């Protein structure tokens, strides 16, 4: 809720009405049950609560290459596959995962021209400990590194890698769907698997009327289904709104989708598609004086005040309000300090 909106709500429903000017002692109001609360020095945050769902960043389609064969092994949905691990097998030969931002499109062998695909291959061989340096040129050191890799993984040692012997993806993958079947023929060029990254994210749904409260970079607190709270940031908010369709065919609420990244991207890795609540923090202040929102009273001349209590003495002090949270409000005013008692409704 914004500061202005909260102030209006307090004046209309939740606060006190003091149609007088601040500064003097006033008698206790008759017939209004009251108690007191302390003026505290705290950190306050202004948050917007939206719904979301856990998922994974990125969508990848694995399209096999090569000359075909028989599918002899396939991964199960949900399996995580890392560099150099088999993704699937053709004729009992594992097809292994290498990391790269683009797919391999030609055989790797001595005499090939330089290119970014060569650099990607060499960076993988280096990461696996088979090559000391990586560049974009296929050299004799590259051939030697391939042979070392082939020996270590039980392959035919020939110093070349043909299409279909490895697949390149941007990083570790988590298998989503499997369209092939063990024992069937492999059809190069046809999708075999779909996968995502292993980085958990939250897809949020923001009501269109609240998008002005949400910005890329805002910090968030995500409440998981087991009530754990984890932190993250708003990565992206779509410029395009969606309108849900209700079961009766009528148009539903207009919302805007967005993505939240988690500070610990593995924290929700076993909770795919689980619903979550996301509190998006738009503003934060630290070490400010604050009172319960219900301590505010509307002043006759405009603005707000609080009743400071000192035993039986009751003094109305004008205050300037700052950031509002769900239950507390930042206040500044002469004669008010940490530890003072202010009057609030008792219920």
From TrEMBL:
It comes from the Bacteria. The keyword Membrane applies. InterPro entries: MFP_Cation_Efflux (IPR051909), Peptidoglycan-bd-like (IPR002477), PGBD-like_sf (IPR036365), PGBDSf (IPR036366). The keyword Flavoprotein does not apply. Residues 115-163 form the Peptidoglycan binding-like domain. The chain crosses the membrane at residues 278-307. Keywords: Membrane, Transmembrane, Transmembrane helix, Transport. PANTHER family: CATION EFFLUX SYSTEM PROTEIN CUSB (PTHR30097), SLR6042 PROTEIN (PTHR30097:SF4). This is Peptidoglycan-binding protein. It comes from Dactylosporangium darangshiense.
